[in-house]
Amino acid sequence: MASVHESLYFNPMMTNGVVHANVFGIKDWVTPYKIAVLVLLNEMGRTGEGAVSLMERRRLNQLLLPLLQGPDITLSKLYKLIEESCPQLANSVQIRIKLMAEGELKDMEQFFDDLSDSFSGTEPEVHKTSVVGLFLRHMILAYSKLSFSQVFKLYTALQQYFQNGEKKTMEDADMELASREEGERKMEKEELDVSIREEEVSCSGPLSQKQAEFFLSQQASLLKNDETKALTPASLQKELNNLLKFNPDFAEAHYLSYLNNLRVQDVFSSTHSLLHYFDRLILTGAESKSNGEEGYGRSLRYAALNLAALHCRFGHYQQAELALQEAIRIAQESNDHVCLQHCLSWLYVLGQKRSDSYVLLEHSVKKAVHFGLPYLASLGIQSLVQQRAFAGKTANKLMDALKDSDLLHWKHSLSELIDISIAQKTAIWRLYGRSTMALQQAQMLLSMNSLESVNAGVQQNNTESFAVALCHLAELHAEQGCFAAASEVLKHLKERFPPNSQHAQLWMLCDQKIQFDRAMNDGKYHLADSLVTGITALNSIEGVYRKAVVLQAQNQMSEAHKLLQKLLIHCQRTRNTEMVISVLLSVAELYWRSSSPTIALPVLLQALALSKEYRLQHLASETVLNLAFAQLILGIPEQALSLLHMAIEPILADGAVLDKGRAMFLVAKCQVASAASCEPLKKAEALEAAIENLNEAKNYFAKVDCKEQIRDVVYFQARLYHTLGKTQERNRCAMLFRQLHQDLPFHGVPLINLL
Amino acid sequence: MIGWGGRDRKMAASSSIVSVAPTASSVPVLPSSCDFSNLREIKKQLLLIAGLTRERGLLHSSKWSAELAFSLPALPLSELQPPPPITEEDAQDMDAYTLAKAYFDVKEYDRAAHFLHGCNSKKAYFLYMYSRYLSGEKKKDDETVDSLGPLEKGQVKNEALRELRVELSKKHQARELDGFGLYLYGVVLRKLDLVKEAIDVFVEATHVLPLHWGAWLELCNLITDKEMLKFLSLPDTWMKEFFLAHIYTELQLIEEALQKYQNLIDVGFSKSSYIVSQIAVAYHNIRDIDKALSIFNELRKQDPYRIENMDTFSNLLYVRSMKSELSYLAHNLCEIDKYRVETCCVIGNYYSLRSQHEKAALYFQRALKLNPRYLGAWTLMGHEYMEMKNTSAAIQAYRHAIEVNKRDYRAWYGLGQTYEILKMPFYCLYYYRRAHQLRPNDSRMLVALGECYEKLNQLVEAKKCYWRAYAVGDVEKMALVKLAKLHEQLTESEQAAQCYIKYIQDIYSCGEIVEHLEESTAFRYLAQYYFKCKLWDEASACAQKCCAFNDGGGDDRAV
Which residues form the Cdc23 domain (chain B) (predicted)? Predict the structure, then answer.
């Protein structure tokens, strides 16, 4: 047998294991720091109304709660905190502690004896059930439970604590000396010196159960709401390990460790922590016999469910499904409807790819309402709305549903869901091509105060919904040619969601897309091409589409065509309608660029039908634009013009600047083409109108730096001026054209053949 | 024979630690070559080190050396070594040392340390430091019960460790530590969780004083895998062989360990009860139950009052359900010393075999009270709770076992079983996988994994598991049958038949007459298979065999 060491046999009582956490039955115990806080409370009680100004008293009261809940801090830090709120009190506290620490044991005993006086009398200083009162009573109880040797130990600890606070400067010198002696050996690991760890307060010493609970809940909520404010993954893990070393039975720490591991996408350790948590949770369930079998079985079900969630998060869908089946089976066996509801929602998440999944979801929502689970219900409604939006349901129905669920949110103050709801509205409006509405919703979310403020100074949390809304905002601005504003938004995003945080991918994609669009407008195709890889890494479908667009622009038609066909098939299978229409448009463009506009027509009609069916206004008007262009090429400009009149209104209202420019340009072309057969006077009039429109188009193009399009416009204008005999204007335009033409490479596509 | 021709008795210290070598001269020179040819020399060294360790209160090392020395033939009077000469320093500290040693022996460590303060001789200095260390440990353990609060219990630490470390590191840097001092320094570092530094110091200690088994043993506990072992520069001494054998056993490299132990027996340590017991444990680890049992029986005859390793023995008896032997062993050990961890464990096993699981759990708990780091008891207690259908307590016990030692495959396996009983096949996969990682060549985990996959209807994975289980050598001989049944389910009759044939061959080749219920199924399936393939002769042969089992069913007769 591998004996660990001889001493083992002398002393069978080891630290690990046997003594359980709750043997003592108390959650809190007296530490030197707590004594210092008690002294502060006592002092506050003793100084009457007059001595401390109202302002100072208010500051002190604000200070108290963090002091009571937070981890132990050093004496000097405590002094500093008190001093900031009320200097004279800090002084008296200091004196009292000094007297106690430098006096005798009986001083401390006396102090605790006197503590309970604050409750006595007809008008007690402290109410028994107040926060402070509870704390005081906890402390008195914990103190009276101490055994003889423990009391003495506490007193020596107090002295130590006091001395550490007093001689901080001297200790610094000592530390240097010690570190010189130790050479390069790692000091931080061994906790040789207390003063080393003073730097990182949160790391110092063990936390009492209450403090630990506070720490865990704080960090967990930060992880959920505002990742940047939480400790970094590494330091949080260190902290947790520390906590677990002091108390291996503290199961919640394992859960936090699981969450923490999720942040860094570590499958292995997160699984480990999760399972460990549930193993441990089962123990605590067993300890509380009142719950009996019920509590125990419950944790089993949720263990399986959480495992499913974990696998789902890492994209192991098959594994997740197996785990989920298990959870469902156990939950069914024990008639746990609430758990089953959760399972049902997850089932939907897993089955999202399937077409009939909305049935599940509808069912889930109904049941959740029935069992009174508002969170689950409205989450279900939101998913349903999302799903229906993709399936082309009318906006009013969706908005109605969202409004109903909003009612629910406000009633139960589910602030997280409110945020999501608004972000979703933004997305839906954008999907339908109503940029103004989208803009308005995004602004609304951003200027709204969150219900639960994490830190006093900050009203908003850094949740996913905010990231989504901000991304939309950036894209909307970029569409309108306000690139400076867009990049400003992106900069803000970068600050709020640093590149390694959970939601960073959202803005990364958005950023790349905007850059890509700009590069394309500029005609810098090589630049766009280099961005494609980045986009593909974040979203493969989008990446492929952009690749095809670049290829098309570079006149590599057959490659582009191949890619687009593949993409089309894929998107049709996955029911990504938005992408299908975009791809169809690209295909159509390919056709007329290779001078076969007749083939393009059925493709465009298909796209139009789809976009009308799914009510994607933005794409619909773009399709109409394409259609009109095709008709123009086919020689029926009158038809094209009437078609354009239909589409021009929504484009000018909601479309991107580029689209507006293209539309106006096309209108001008059609006007010219249809005026060809008219009598001269009318013709001149039409040409004048066309020139006006061209000017407008030119303005739009200038906004988004589309030099190529501007060149075309200028060329066209010059020709028109020439026809009208306005030589001076003609020459001006021709000169502009020449300048632009020298700057830009010629792509070998006839000018007229470009939309 | 071990073929190192190191007859020229080179100094153990290699060049890397030459600077330390002079310090060793203050202790009587203890050369030890890597050669086993001179057993007398080895015996002399063992006797010497036994004395030295005893003087320093290192009782377990002393015991180990003495045991090993005892297994070698006795020396004639002329060869007996005189006790090491007493130096001037020793003489000065003699009184203090004698007094302190007496106090030390009655566990009054602080008192011993007090009287040793200021002594200069190496021996007295070591005892001084060691007393302080043990005093700290003792206080720490007493403190645990009496700490200020529950969460503080993990924080209770040996207050003396820090001071000891500082002092020892000063001495270490000044190269003033002898082998024992280095050993103590290493122990202190390990207790402070400075594993890397501790390993370095222990390696140094083995160079300076290769004969001290304690240092080797500490090293064993710090090394977690084969890779780490490879990168250690260990002294070339015969002690290294013992160390390697021991660590191979620890790292579950049983084949290598057995080889080493066999070599040691061949060179003349055949009487050593230590080696014999280690071999028995090794056989236990590879589930060669019969061999292990016979070796243990032999050991019991040689050394009837031995308590160490008897828990392993009882495990074996338990596996073979040898009730009377186990009962005898339990009573015997109880008479020798009932407050030993091993005794409690044996009694626990005994009760468990008699299906008195409550009592069994009680005894395992008692074992844990005696030594909370006694890993086996946690696992066994988990098993008992499983038997009592108290799954939550079982999980707790297993988790504790894992906390003590993460590499305890039985605890992982037990956790897996618990969740399997709770009908969570997917959930238990993780645990079985962990167990399988730790024992990649153990068929039981693979079969368990296979069963889980089968329950999850992932037949492809299940097949892989069963096949692998068969390939690594199936202990329970069930993998093939299960594989065959899977193939049957998937209507892959060809493969199913192959599996059944292999299974029958396996059963017959090992010649065991154990009740194998599946044999008849195998024959029956084979008969049907041959029948389908129109191989009438084979079919009828199989059918006849099947009839011999009496439960073949009607369709065989149809053939």
Answer: 42-280
